[in-house]
Amino acid sequence: MAGLLVKRGAVLLDADRLAHGVLEEPEVAVRVVEAFGAGVKDEHGRVDRRRVGEIVFRDPAKLKALEALVHPRVIASILTRLSELAVAAGKPRRVAILDVPLASEAGLMEAADLRVFIEASEETRQRRARENRGWSPGELERREARQLPLAEKRARSDFVVSNDGDVAEAEQDVERFWASVVRPRVEAVSG
Q: Which residue range forms the structural domain that includes residue 97?
């Protein structure tokens, strides 16, 4: 869904992608290996996110340790980029998509002008987690348990967009949302 918004000119700030970059920082990689053992390195000596995930999503204390190391850097990067997008001199304000599973928990919701909840059924989320991420049964539940309940995220949002259908349906939903909600807001700020 984020990709469809990017096609329309939005900038994607993806917390997972930023976290990948943080784990590649030498200082962070050393600390992760110290905390979780040499078994978290891949055959090239880099931190293997899947191996780290297998450890931390089974042990809340280890997850907290990883979050304390990675999250401040990711949040700082997002806030810096938002600041850059907001003050692009002489240009219309850009639309930024924050793809941040823990946005509420990290205090990032306050940085958003508009909060959109992308809704998908449990069955769809399970299938996508299995097909797109290779997650085993139970992994989605473990990860979602670390976040605000979906109903609360939905209630805190200004808009809800369904993402249960196929690509063509998603394209139509995003176009309706972009045309009726996003474009008028951008034009009002830019105009």
A: 2-190
Q: How many CB atoms lie within 10 A of CB 178?
A: 19
Residue with tokens 């191996």: 51
- HSE-CB for 140 with a 13 A CA cutoff: 18
High-pLDDT (> 70) share of the chain, %:
94
Contacts of 134 (CB under 8 A, 6+ apart): 50
User: Into how many domains does the chain fold?
Assistant: 1
| pTM of the shown model | 0.76
**What value does the mean pLDDT of the chain take?**
86
CATH code of the domain covering residue 22: 3.40.50.300
Amino acid at 77: S
- Phi and psi for 37 in degrees, rounded to 5? 95, 160
More confident residue, 57 or 86: 57
If DSSP codes are grouped into helix, strand and coil, which group holds residue 43?
coil
